[in-house]
Amino acid sequence: MKILFFTENTHFGGLDNFLISLINHWPNPSDEISLICNQSHPGLSFLRKRLRRNCVISSNKLLLDWEFLSRLDSILLTKFFRRGVGFLIRYPFFIYYILRLYVVFKKENYDRLMVVNGGYPAGNSNRAASIAWGLLGRSKSIHNFHNIAVKPNSLTAWIENLIDYFVHYYSKAFVSPSQSCSESIRARPILVNSEKITFIYNGTEKFIKFPPSGSSLKEKIGIPDNGLVCSMLGTYEPRKGHHFLLKSLSKVLQSIPNVYFVFSGYGLQKEIQKVRRLVDQMGLSKKVFLEDASISKEELYSDTDVLISGSQGYESFGLTLIEAMCRKIPIVCTKVGGMVEVMGGNDVGYCVERDHVDDFSQQLIRLLANKKLRVAMGKKGYERYLQLFRAENMSIAYKELIYSEDNRGFNMLQKFNNKLVK
To answer: N or C: which terminal CB in the chain sees fewer CB atoms within 10 Å?
Structure first.
């Protein structure tokens, strides 16, 4: 079977890791898998490097509306004019996407399509791909979205509802990585009563510990051997809560002076500079290390005592949480979106209210001060990972859903999910 994954992405991060785990662990070796991505995606080279399974990766030649706007930045001197032009070109570009993708899909003769979207509506070429595929009359596609869906703007609600109608009509299922994320799509009026909404928990591959080679990460970036490391892996977007975590660190240092925070992830230069200014203003430059996405994830996890996530909104799942679990690293995170489902209580760490700095700090101090507690919670996390978050299980679930011609695969998945959330 020829299976196509289609995505439009502006950031390098969780969506790429999802695709890598899904494709590398695809259960049917005879399937021909292809991935089409926008040529401007910053994670494209990372995908090509990390995909071990045979997969044809191609960048589409679509000129995306936001790429077109970026070329006009020197002309559109204010945000007001930029938004105005963006509004005027958004839907003409949408029609252009449908026409171009119809030709691409017809030429390649794929059997199945899964659109992998960052959120909803998110990438307009993603929704256009669902419609273009549907116009070919092939087996209905799957629309996979990885962040919280948002309500349509009142000014464009009529056309957004029309697009949603066709995306829904031509899709077999709307799938996200957690129940809370999947239910958020009911904010779209056309989808409020849909019976096509479900979820499949993200998975990650089992951690294989390799013998150390050369210097440790602590040595490379300048953390003392006796330093306790709290790591956060994620983009430098404001919603990820860097400021919240820095305020927490200020309080933790009063009790545990040998703690260090390491932030790692993709970010625009202005986003990283903003976090750096906060670090300097709070006098934490000797305690906080800002790294980009090129840092070795395995080196970072090897020196991590506690994984932290201070997200303040729009967190559909929390992939780094299960990456920590499979490495027996305890977690302190905020009660945002799907992270509550991933944690499943306080056996594997602590999950606190998103705006409670004091509570977050206290739970982090409790873990950092007690190695036995860190080890015990790390073991519990590993058990939870084996039960729910293995990459193989995730890939099998998606394969069954993609393969099914009728609703049987979807109904089986719904029954399984109902057992998980009880």
So the answer is: C
